[in-house]
Amino acid sequence: MAIGAGAKVATMATEERGFSQAVDDTAIALAINAKFGQADPAVYRNVYTTVREGKVLLTGEVAKPADRIEAVRLTWTVKGVRAVVNDLTMPTGQDGVDLARDVWLASRMDTDLLFDSEIQAVNYTVDVVGDTLHIMGIAQDARERDRVLAYARALPHIRKIADHTRLKADPSP
C-alpha cells in the first residue's frame, strides 16, 4: 500500500496541473462520492466521478432523469467544483461482458498513450461507458491533442468521443 501511495504522489507531482491541484481534485472527488453515499448509495452506485482542475465529469448510469439532476446538484455543493459535465445516462442494459469491454478499452487507451513518447500520458484521464470514450486532461499543444484523439478514434466499439481536454497554453479554469 505504501508503494502504491508513493507512486500516486510521484505521478501527481509530474502532472501538468501540479501536485497541489491534483490533491485538490482528489479531495473534491472524495467529497462528491461522500455526498452521493449520504444521499442514497443505491442510486449512485454506478456513477463515476472524474475531477481535473476542479472540472467534474459524471459518467455512468442512474435510474431516473431526476437522479441525473440531483447528482449535478450534489456535485455543485462541494467546495472547489468549477464546472460539471453531466454525461450520466439511463440504464442501457449493459451486462458484465459490456462492462469488462469498457474497462479493457479504457486500459488499451491508457496503454496507447503511455507508450507514445510524444504524449504526456500522465496528463490524461480516460473513462469508457458503453460506446462513449470520455477523456479529460491538458495537452501540451494541438498536435498532442490530435494524437490522443487519433488513438481514441482507432479503438473498436467507440462511437462517440467526449473530449474534455484543454491546451496547456489556454488559461487555467
How would you describe this protein?
The protein has 173 residues and is an alpha/beta fold. The chain is 45% helix and 24% strand. The chain has five helices and six strands, in the order ααββαβαββαβ. It has helices at 2-14, 19-39, 65-76, 96-114, 142-154, and strands spanning 47-52, 55-61, 83-89, 124-129, 132-139, 160-167. The strands form two sheets. The chain has a three-stranded mixed β-sheet. β5, α5 (142-154) and β6 form a beta-alpha-beta unit. α1 (2-14) packs across α2. The longest helix is centred in the first third of the chain and has 21 residues, at 19-39. The chain starts with a helix and ends in a 6-residue tail after the last strand.
What tags apply to this protein structure?
5 helices; disordered N terminus; 173 residues; 6 strands; globular; 3-stranded mixed sheet; alpha/beta
